[in-house]
Amino acid sequence: MINQHLQERLRRKKFLSIGRAGMDFYPEPPGTEIEDATDFSAHVGGSAGNIAVALVKLGCQAELLTCFSDDAIGRFTCNKLEKFGVMTTHCRRIGGEARNTLAVVETRLIDCQSVIYRNGAADFEMNKKDIETLDYASSGGVILSGTALADEPSRSAIFAAIARARSAGAPVIVDMDYRPYSWASAEEAQSVYAKAIAQCDVVVGNDVEFGVAAGSHEDGLNFASELAAGIPDIVIYKKGELGATTLTNGDRFDTGIFPVQALKPTGAGDAFMGGFIAGLADQKPLKDAVIQGSAAAALVVTRVACSTAMPTQSELSEFLKSHTLSQT
């Protein structure tokens, strides 16, 4: 069961998404390796940006909080998000050497190469003053991208956002989004993640990410189970092609995946979060919301890019009619 306060707030369908957004380049046509490419398509990427787009496409309101570099790439990212319907009112532009993330990613399933440029990442410049500008009182939920915890001043900003959201009664939802290249060490990541996610209402991560928070991969599921006995109402432990285990205080269930002909492995996690949270906002039972998240993830990996590939509600409904969840 989901507690009543969490249900009532999520029903507002108005979310804040905090973290990174940038530009993704994809070699065209699909299947082309980066080193052989002559044509690329450009899309918005980054966990917080992708999740915001996913929510808007599923009928929710979403406002992004990040920092954009004050250059053509920052403007591209901001403009594309706004065209999707994501609000960027409180995003700050940064001059100097800060840059929005650039990812060059192949659309192929086997040996998919992904090259990420995050030196001097603009989103890490988000600070406590940026967090203070948000309207937590009317929000249905605050969704945090865990990568923002990897460096200062954004780390302190995220902890400040957690405190402000909790004070305003807004649910705090975290996608752990562990990117090892952003952290000084696995030990630092373990300490910071464990402290942050213990204060959130909904925690979503994969087996690797829970392993990092636990301090060892073998202890990840036990760590997730113990977490669900504390503040978090919902903990989702994703297991890739083996599906997911959803844990609440006193209950747990397993769900499979939707087998599809995937083009690429990227974007599934952001799509899952968008589909899952939108499902809860539409008052779906917890298991049905998880299944909707899984359907969104399955659809995204059959398409080029991430943000552009996020499904609409009608696409999800049609997919769910014609596809069967694997058995766990």
Detailed description of the structure:
By secondary structure, the protein is an alpha/beta fold. The protein has one domain (4-19, 47-66, 127-322): Ribokinase (UDP-N-acetylmuramoyl-L-alanine:D-glutamate ligase, 3-Layer(aba) Sandwich). 36% of the residues lie in helices and 20% in strands. The strands form three sheets. An eight-stranded mixed β-sheet has the order 4-1-9-10-11-12-13-14, with helices on both faces. Strands 3-2-7-8 form a four-stranded mixed β-sheet. It has a two-stranded parallel sheet with strand order 5-6. Helix 5 (154-167) links the parallel strand 9 (141-145) and strand 10 (172-175). Helix 9 (268-281) packs antiparallel against helix 10. The longest helix is centred in the C-terminal third of the chain and has 15 residues, at 286-300. The mean pLDDT is 97.
CATH topology: UDP-N-acetylmuramoyl-L-alanine:D-glutamate ligase
Strand numbers in spatial order across the main sheet: 4-1-9-10-11-12-13-14
Tally the beta strands: 14
Query: What average pLDDT do the residues reach?
Result: 97
Distance between the termini: 21 Å
Number of helices: 11
Can you say what the CATH homologous superfamily is?
A: Ribokinase
CATH architecture: 3-Layer(aba) Sandwich
Low-confidence stretches: none
Query: What portion of residues belong to β-strands?
Result: 15-25%
Order of helices and strands: HEEEHEEHEEEHEHEHEHHEEEHHH
Gyration radius (Cα, Å) is 18 Å
Number of domain modules: 1
Content-based structural category: alpha/beta
Fraction of residues in helix? 25-40%
| Gross geometry | globular
State the name of the first-level CATH class.
Alpha Beta
Instruction: Please outline the major beta sheet.
Output: 8 strands, mixed
